[in-house]
Amino acid sequence: MNNPLKEKYGPLPIVEAMIFSSENPLSAEKIASILELNKEDVEEIIKILMKEYNHNEMHGIEIVEIGGGYFFRTKIPYAPFIRKIVMGKESDLSKSAMETLAIIAYKQPITRAEIEHIRGVDSSNPIRSLLEKKLIKIQGRKDVPGRPHVYGTTKEFLKAFGLKDLSELPNIKEIKEIIKEPQLKLIGEEDEDKTSENNS
Questions:
Q1: Maximum pairwise Cα distance, the chain
Q2: Within a domain: residue 15?
Q3: Are residues 28 and 71 located together in one domain of the fold?
Q4: pTM assigned to the model
Q5: Alpha helices per DSSP H over the chain
Q6: Model confidence over 26-70: pLDDT tens digits?
């Protein structure tokens, strides 16, 4: 690829711009394909960028790896301030929504009937809430009579909980401890609570 900017400054600022502008986590393979570079070279560039942003207190953003790709996000201590700008409604998850989300995360793909069988109660409202927050999505239909929808988690779910992939899900014991809490806070909200306690 004959790109004068690439030739003058090297690929680092281009990789930085690509990750910054991508709405979803961008894989090293995708970047390498676009820039006609080796994947290993791109990964080395990303490491340099992560060192620059993630370990520099002068930056309020960082690069993280989620779902096999990389993206910029607000550093956790500053997330509460940004959330007040970008979120039009509370991001808290109720206990019922957290229970439902945990079941979907570990049992996906799963139908509403199967979720309700595990929970023992109607789960239409928690499912609707999780769909609205884009933490889960409809992955298709199950090949059984009635062909009900099956649900699974999204990349937004991974981003919200700071997971690279589903293999980093906490174990069942940890999940049970989380569910005992009256409400689950998404990334950044726990820091806001600590700040409030310190100021009181």
A1: 63
A2: yes
A3: yes
A4: 0.55
A5: 4-9, 12-21, 28-35, 39-54, 79-86, 95-107, 112-119, 124-132, 155-161, 172-180, 189-199
A6: 999 999 999 999 999 999 999 999 999 999 889 988 998 887 899
